[in-house]
Write a structure and sequence with these properties.
Layout: E1 2-12, E2 17-28, E3 33-37, H1 44-50, E4 61-69, E5 72-73, H2 79-88, E6 90-93, H3 97-100, H4 107-119, H5 123-136, H6 142-146, H7 155-167, E7 173-177, H8 185-202, E8 205-210, H9 213-219, E9 222-227, E10 230-236, H10 237-242, H11 247-254, H12 294-297, E11 304-307, E12 310-313
Parallel strand pairs: 3-8, 3-9, 6-7, 7-8
Antiparallel strand pairs: 1-2, 1-4, 4-5, 9-10, 10-12, 11-12
Helix pairs in contact: 4-5, 5-7, 7-8
Length: 322
Amino acid sequence: MLEIRDISLAVPAQESSVQAVSHVSLSMKPGRVLGLVGESGCGKTLTAQSILRLGEHQGISKTAGDILLHGESVFSMSDKQLRHMRGGKVAMIFQEPMTALNPVFSIASQMIEIIQLHLELSTHEAKQHAIQLLNDVGLQDAEHLLSQYPDALSGGMRQRVLIAMAMSANPEYIIADEPTTALDVSVQKRIIALLRRLQQDKELGMLLVTHDFGLVAEMCDDVVVMYAGEVVESGNVMDIFDHPAHPYTKALMGCRPEVGKAGEPLTVIEGQVPAPGEWPQGCRFAVRCPYADTACEKGVAVDAWKQGEHLVRCVHVQDKEH
């Protein structure tokens, strides 16, 4: 199991640092897809990248908690162990296919370097492995494609290359950070179908970072909803969809376009996510929540309510029908 335990992360600010992720816990299990959902600015990508300890060179630091891979702390790994873990055990598909590949290196050089680093193959063997990977993700004329540079590829092709690169060292876990961002709808559907097929064929654990509950319904087995740096609700995907309990989860689900309502305005959540360092006391969603009262706004402790695997962080959830 890959497990995040009570992790808190701080980001650099003008004078010191501010907390951007607050006591987040989640677990990725082999063969299951975990959706990490929330608006931009909620801390999803920071949380996901902390698994690989990305961002440390930018001053992002862990202030509490731990991340365990098969019981071993990621933060106690040596540089050599960390290099082996990145890509070899846990791989990441970054959210922007148009910029995630290095434009000055060919596809071959970028793929073969990763393959040789982790699998210790000869250049010829690594090239054949790369060709097979490109074929696996549905790219035609893979040998010719290896000689191309990223600017010769469409967004959908680049995303497939990124997926092939993530799969190249046979990882146990994949982190997919909004993998369909900047792609048109028809390409998005194909990329999602490809990810789901690869995940199921290889029984991978996957963390899918997204703001789209429609994608969660299509892809995920479990869901964690984040708001303003903390988990507000988590559980099995069917339980969350059948019985959403936190007002923020309900609001996100209400923003989905629905068949049969063409021409009607979309539901919106008024206001915006507070920036790190500007979080209110008590419930961080209170200023945007239609159900908020004095208890929410004045700092009454918001403890997590739990029923089975369904966790909700709302001071009133026990008073409402679940």
